[in-house]
Write a structure and sequence with these properties.
Radius of gyration: 16 Å
Distance between the termini: 41 Å
CATH superfamily: Homing endonucleases
Order of helices and strands: HHEEHEEHHH
Structural class: alpha+beta
CATH class: Alpha Beta
CATH topology: Endonuclease I-creI
CATH architecture: Roll
Mean pLDDT: 86
Helix content: 40-55%
Number of strands: 4
Number of domains: 1
Number of helices: 6
Strand content: 15-25%
Shape: globular
């Protein structure tokens, strides 16, 4: 699996993962998620959540632990339905201050880069705590 190849071909000094390796794994197995959910308790009528995640087979959990250690943010979750682990970051400040700068410095090379750029704009809007009006949602 991914972790076995990684361990055989990487210097695991301090258990850190090379930043380009994180970008490559994200290009293949990562996602930038935005959910807009109707919530009548909110002034705007909606709630927006954002997350970054990388999902790997159970055999590659240690690699996710190393990635989490690199970033210093996020959590790892197990999904018994498909026998995978997910490294996930949901905190807007962590996304803005840690995750987004990583992918600006070490850019994605697939179509996922366009997804990331849109995601980064949405995170910045949320970070500014702009009142989420219909105009902001449309933007």
């Amino acid at each position: 699996m991914v972790y076995t190849y990684y361990m055989e071909n990487t210097n695991m000094k301090n258990n850190l993962v090379h930043p380009w390796t994180i970008t490559g794994i994200t290009d293949a197995e990562g996602s930038f998620n935005v959910s807009i959910i109707k919530d009548n308790k909110r002034p705007s009528g909606y709630v927006v959540t954002v997350s970054f995640e990388i999902g790997l087979n159970i055999k590659d959990k240690v690699l996710l632990e190393h990635i989490r250690a690199n970033f210093g943010v996020g959590k790892i979750y197990y999904n018994p339905q498909d026998n995978t682990y997910r490294f996930k970051v949901t905190n807007v400040n962590d996304l803005s201050n840690v995750i987004i700068p990583h992918f600006i410095k070490y850019p994605l090379v697939t179509q996922k880069r366009a997804d990331f750029e849109l995601f980064a704009k949405i995170v910045e809007i949320l970070k500014k705590k702009v009142t989420l009006t219909l105009r902001v949602y449309n933007k």
